[in-house]
Amino acid sequence: MKGIVFTEFLEMVDDSFGYETTEAIIKKADLPSGGVYTGIGTYSHSEMIALVKGLSAETHVKVQVLVQTFGEHMLGRFVDLFPDFFSTVPDVLSFLENVDGYIHGEVRKLYPNATLPEIATRRLDDGQFELIYKSPRHLGDFAEGLIAGAIRHFGEPFAVQRTDLPNEGQRQCVKFMLAPRP
C-alpha cells in the first residue's frame, strides 16, 4: 500500500483526535515500519489494518465508520493533490466512470506494481448508476467514503445504497447503487 495512504491517515487522526491519539495507536500497533512513512514508500496493508483497529479501540468508533470517514477525507485530499482528475469531468457520475480507466491508468504509470481495485460502472435506464468494487484488500468501506466524498465535492443530490456481494476468491465485491434524490 502506498505511503501517501498512511501519511494522510495519520494526518486525519492528528486533526480529528489529536497528536496524542496518533502516537498511542502507533505505539500499541507495534508496526514493522515503526509508524514512519513516506508518501512514495510502499508498506504492508496489514499495518493500515493495525492502525485502524487501534484507532477504533482508542476512540470507540467502529472500524467501518473510521474507514468510511477516511475515504471521504482522501477524496478531499485527492481534489487538492490531483485537481485535473476533477476539473476535466462535469459531474460525479462522469468522475466515477473515469476511476478505473483513466485515474487508475495514471496511477499504474507512476506505480506499476500497485494493487488497485477493479471498478466497473454502468448507467441504468431509470437514471440510476451502478458501481461494482472488487479488491483483495477488502476496502469497500473506503470506497464508500470516496463515493460519498465525490458526491459532496460535485454537489449533486445522490442517495447511495450498498450491497455486499459474495466474495470472488480473495476479492471483496461490493455493489453501490447511486440514485438521484428528488
Structure description:
With 182 residues, the protein is of the alpha+beta class. The protein has 2 domains: 59 residues; 113 residues, H-NOX domain (Alpha-Beta Complex), CATH 3.90.1520. It contains 7 helices and 4 strands. It has a 4-stranded antiparallel beta sheet with strand order 1-2-4-3, with helices on one face. It is globular. The mean pLDDT is 94.
Short précis:
With 182 residues, this protein is α+β, with helices and mostly antiparallel strands. The chain has helices at 3-17, 19-29, 45-59, 63-81, 84-87, 92-110, 140-154, and strands at residues 118-123, 129-135, 158-168, 171-180. It is globular, with a radius of gyration of 17 Å.
Point out poorly predicted stretches.
none
**Major beta sheet, strand line-up:** 1-2-4-3
Task: Identify the CATH homologous superfamily of the largest domain.
Answer: H-NOX domain
CATH architecture of the largest domain: Alpha-Beta Complex
- Tell me the number of helical segments per DSSP (H or I, 4 or more residues long): 7
Q: Name the quaternary structure.
A: single chain
In whole angstroms, the N-to-C terminal distance is: 39 Å
C-alpha Rg (nearest Å): 17 Å
- How many strands, what sense, and barrel or not for the largest sheet? 4 strands, antiparallel
Q: How much strand? A: 15-25%
Which secondary-structure class do the elements indicate? alpha+beta
